[in-house]
Write a structure and sequence with these properties.
Blueprint lengths: L1 H7 L7 E4 L2 E4 L3 H19 L5 H39 L2 H15 L4 H12 L2 H25 L11 H7 L3 H15 L3 H25 L1 H30 L7 H48 L5 E4 L2 E4 L9 H19 L8 H4 L1 H16 L2 H10 L1
Antiparallel strand pairs: 1-2, 3-4
Helix pairs in contact: 2-3, 4-11, 4-12, 5-9, 6-8, 6-9, 7-8, 9-14, 10-11, 11-12
Keywords: Membrane, Transmembrane, Transmembrane helix
Length: about 375
């Protein structure tokens, strides 16, 4: 793919945009990325400091290009969904929001155990400030993107080709990188504030991660305990069959493959047990949110003195959560239904929620990996296996 790009980069110039009376021909984002990776691979080959780095970059180029192209298509969709959800959150009645979140906790709390814990930790550490910082960084990124898009349309020599793309065509990858770095730095008007925001966001993330490690320490310890007990026997039983299956040339990989497979299975199993615990807790908490929201609506509507038929009798004030068991009557059935649903579906998300919540699912698995593999237990297990 890199070779094809180097041969056809001067002719594969798409994205035509009007700038005055001239048409500036521009490369696609995929072509620019492929060009930069080609340049980086060539530089790595020339330096010779990291053997095989150039080949790795060339091999990874198709995958990186596909990922970037996919992000280009689905990224705007998820941004739009987030913006719509944020507007609904700001405008909807607070009690309705509470009931909605409660229902989500009842039905999906176990699926997003680590994410929910991370959100709670963020809130405890000043979530509003963190969100404001993130909004500022997002605004700066959009400004940088606009400046780069404007730079991609510049044609100073009036030959109909974007100047930035001409640098790629000429193989001047260092000049291209320098140009883009300059554009990025020029777009940022308050570098001190940007640095403070990045440092603050990183510090908040590390603090949350430390909190999650403590909260899920038993899950990690359980996974590593399973590995310690199961691995020796499994390796003794399966090492020889796996070696034969791999063949003479790859037989020495048998122990490593078994070790990795056992670790992955143990971690998944430990987190599944944690999901059950989290599902039970989140179902109760979600049920409480639903009950509080409904009772608040009842109080707002003035229905607390209504006579309700209960066990064959009309009881006045049965809808008053302060003097009756109405909130408990709502809480426990909701919690039971939510917990049962999560267990029955195996913590799977139904369509189309699985697509809408895909970014959150990615964050969830990333957090689980961070919690498990960067914790003390994970490091000890890694050292022991080494």
């Amino acid at each position: 793919m890199i070779g094809d790009f180097e041969k056809s980069s001067k002719v594969a110039l798409i994205e035509k945009e009007e700038t005055g009376s001239k048409v500036v021909k521009r490369k696609t984002t995929e072509e620019r990325i492929a060009g930069m990776l080609a340049g980086a691979a060539a530089k790595a080959d020339e330096s010779g400091t990291t053997k095989g780095a150039g080949e790795c970059m060339r091999a990874a180029t198709p995958i990186i290009v596909i990922v970037v192209k996919a992000l280009q298509y689905i990224g705007p969709f998820y941004i739009k969904v987030f913006n719509v959800g944020h507007q609904i959150y700001l405008q909807a009645p607070k009690n309705v929001i509470k009931i909605t979140f409660g229902a989500a906790l009842c039905g999906f709390g176990g699926t997003f155990a680590a994410s929910i814990a991370a959100i709670e930790a963020f809130n405890q550490m000043g979530g509003e400030k963190v969100f404001t910082t993130f909004e500022y960084l997002w605004g700066e990124l959009k400004t940088i993107q606009k400046k780069n898009e404007t730079d991609d349309q510049v044609d100073a020599d009036k030959n109909g080709l974007a100047d930035a793309d001409e640098l790629l065509d000429a193989g001047k990858f260092a000049d291209y990188a320098s140009r883009k770095i300059t554009v990025t730095m020029t777009a940022v008007k308050q570098p001190e504030k940007l640095q403070e925001a990045v440092v603050g966001l990183w510090a908040a993330y590390m603090a949350v991660l430390a909190t999650l490690r403590l909260e899920f320490a038993r899950t990690t310890a359980m996974a590593m305990g399973i590995i310690d007990v199961v691995e020796p026997a499994m390796v003794r039983v399966l090492a020889e069959p796996v070696s034969k299956l791999l063949g003479k040339d790859l037989a020495h990989w048998a122990h490593t493959i078994l070790d990795s497979a056992i670790k992955i299975v143990a971690i998944i199993f430990a987190w599944y047990l944690q999901m059950i615990i989290s599902a039970f807790y989140s179902a109760l908490r979600g049920g409480r949110m639903i009950a509080d929201g409904l009772c608040a609506i009842i109080s707002e509507k003035g229905w607390t003195e209504l006579e309700l038929p209960i066990v064959g009798k009309a009881l006045k004030g049965a809808a008053d959560p302060e003097t009756s068991y109405l909130d408990e009557a709502i809480l426990y059935p909701c919690a039971a239904v939510g917990f049962s649903y999560q267990i029955l579906v195996g913590f799977a998300l139904p369509f189309p929620l699985n697509l809408l919540l895909l970014p959150l699912s990615i964050v969830e698995w990333f957090l689980r990996w961070q919690i498990t593999m960067t914790s003390g237990a994970g490091a000890d297990a890694g050292a022991a296996s080494g």
